[in-house]
Amino acid sequence: MEPVYTLTLSDPLADLETAGGKGASLARLAAHGLPVPDGFHVTTAAYKRFTEDNNLAPDIQKRLEEVSLSQPATLEAASRAIRDLFAQAPIPVEISGAIAQAYNRLPGNQPAVAVRSSATAEDLPDLSFAGQQDTYLNIQSPAEVLEAVRRCWASLWTARAIGYRERNKIDHQSVSLAVVVQLLIPAEVAGILFTQNPLNGRSDQALINAAWGLGEAIVGGAVNPDTLVVDKASGAMIERQTAEKQVMTVRVENATQEQPVPLELQQAPALDDRAAAELVRLGVQIEQIFGLPMDIEWALADGALAILQARPITALPSPQALAPGEWILPKPKAQYMRGSLVDLMPNPVSPLFTTMGIPAIADMGITRVMRELTRSEPHLPYDYITTINHYAYMCGSFNRKEWWWILTRMLPSFLRLVREGFKLWRDEIRPSYAQTALDWRDRSFEAMTVDELWRGILELVHGMGEYIASILVATTGSSAGAEMVFRRVYEKMVKREGDAEATAFLLGFNSIAIQAEKSLYDLAEWARNSPELADWLKNTEASQLSQQWTADFPPQGVPQDIWTEWQRGLREHLEHFGHIIYEVDFAKPLPLDDPTPMLQACKMYLRGDGGNPYERQKNLEVNRIESTEAILRRTKGLRRWAFRKSLGLVHSRVEVREDAIADIGLGYPALRRALLELGRRMVQAGAIQAADDIFYLERAEIEAAVSALQSHSPLSTMILAVQERRAALEAARRLNPPPMLPPTKKYMGIDMSYFVPSAENDHTEQVLKGVGASSGRVTAPARVLSSPEDFDDMQPGEVIVAQITTPAWTPLFAMASAVVTDIGGPLSHGSIVAREYGIPAVMGTGVATRRIHSGQMLTVDGSNGTVRLEQDQAPT
Predict the structure, then answer these.
(1) According to the model, what pLDDT value does residue 130 have?
(2) Which of 843, 829, 668, 692 is CA-nearest to residue 772?
(3) Which residue ranges of the chain lie beneath pLDDT 50?
(4) Is residue 297 a contact partner of residue 219, using CB atoms and an 8 Å limit?
(5) Dihedrals phi, psi of 340, to nearest 5 degrees
(6) Which of 20, 255, 670, 778 fits a disulfide with 440 by CB distance 3.0 to 4.6 angstroms?
(7) What is the residue range of 862's domain?
């Protein structure tokens, strides 16, 4: 195939490899109909032919070998020698002919043009290479264009360009150069537009620099320009600073030069509000095309704007999204609450889980479960689970049709829900979900087609949705009801003074969370038998252990066979328990992704802290059995029957409640791997910057990307959207989500304090109010844990203060003196585990993680449900 030496400006072949960064950008803009001056590309094939025909590579390489970054003079010497080579070398006839022909096709008689260098490593998101190569303005004949092209080629080898590539470790031989030739706009005003404010990182603001004449005065720093800050959505002027502009770049015969600005214009605004708004509108279009904040050179002539260049902005400050100031309800008259499943979503929810995970639970999952158990088509709110300011809420309001279904179908089916819901979960939905997880667990996602990958993702999400919906009915809901029934029977009909508390009959089961803790204890005990390994584990930070445990070679002093066996043991632990979730949002990492918390637990056991989980669980089990036998020995008739019946019911539910929550994550390892593989393919296609950016996309956006990947079509860039959503979720973390919206303490006559976190006004300056979930009273220092990354900070005897705890947190309880949470109630994981460990717990304070700081002394009263913030009281 014959090489192509020139291309029209909007030619689809004008990509990075062919037309360089600047050229590819202009071609893309022109193809989208932006006001880009007409012109053509001199392709990289022309540069390569020129250097090959003149055999320049050996001499260039020889000069580069003499370069040293520590000696700037060597850069200058190499540059002069290489540029002399270019000046003396003839341009092949085929190239000069193609350039002359392309120039002559431009409108006008020998029109004035700008000749700009466009390197293949230029105008990229991470390295802009701005100003590394040359630009020549006001060129007006084929001969002058040819000479300007030659000088552009030579500018690939300026001292600055050579040094830039050396410092950034870019192979000189991998870089080539194209040239863009465009009609020169006789600008009256010109400047630069940043589509994201580079001063504060605000993505909702654009910043404009403007000055009289051609834009070279601004680019070269010769003039102090006007600065305008404009709202991108409305085009309204936010701020205007008019500078005293003393010089301007203007056209003269066959060249440009700087001249003084006329006195009457020096302090006059160069760009009015209307033109600024129009320029920002064009900038927003360009930003949407590239999916990135853009640095755009522009010009204004005869009232018309022209786009001269566009490149990604580099080195922007992190965008600081404003935290939402109000809580706008999706349905103004509805009631929303943070309880039930929402307990497992304490943080702002990712866009992907919001648009894919929540619908799978609230629509597909609950619909299927309720259809089977009520023998009817369910009618529940479309936003039964929704998000407000990125936080998950459950909707507790229903329209007439929904109330009719609840009253005539759901409530009459209550006993079936309790009885058959458990069987549906145990016999159908959990085995199906476990099998789906197993089917996809060991597959090579890297070898799959996009269609196969997406099918796997959908299957795993669907399985997750049905599973979570089923446990809401079968285990979480029914166990709550069963426990309430048992407590009432026991306390009203059976209990006498001196008898065990009702909780004693509900503890000591060998749940998955307890099995995981035992597994870590066993690992620590095994390591204790190797002094070298035990010393290394005890004296190394858990975060560092997490990075080193997969290494082929052991740490210094640790025998290879001991190291290999330790790795095998930890790997087996992760295979069995690494899926246990920290949060239900599958965008959040699992213990499998980062075993730091597990390694911290091993260190704890090696230090002798935490006690023996086998003994603790066995003692609770023995106490449960003995307490049960004591009651059965002394009761008869109706009391005995009611006790046995209610206890059997609650045991059948409580025994599996924690296991059901732990198994939510069965499909998450495969699901996260599949999503990250799809994310990597989207990175390769230029849609996002990192594989885990996929969690900040919405389902519809991913479906569009999958369709484009399947048809080998270009993907829309979503980089800017991801940046904005990351910033928005980070800002949302600073919020304190109200437990009820609108705020209320009672709903339909029911006291909601048992089900949702406390409100802000329930607390005093010194005392936080919550739900007493495990009795006892202790004064000790706090340890605020915002995520598993903080587990390494936990010290024995401290009070765990967290938004919520899940089964993956269980090992920490062995170190804790008490636990306090923002959300949760008597039946949440933290309450159950705290009772098993015999430590006080206060749940659902709503504000603990915001009002308490690590090291602060607390008095936690699990009997009264209060947390007192002490001053300098010693721990007891």
Answers:
(1) 44
(2) 843
(3) 122-131, 754-755, 757, 873-876
(4) yes
(5) 60, -130
(6) 670
(7) 757-869
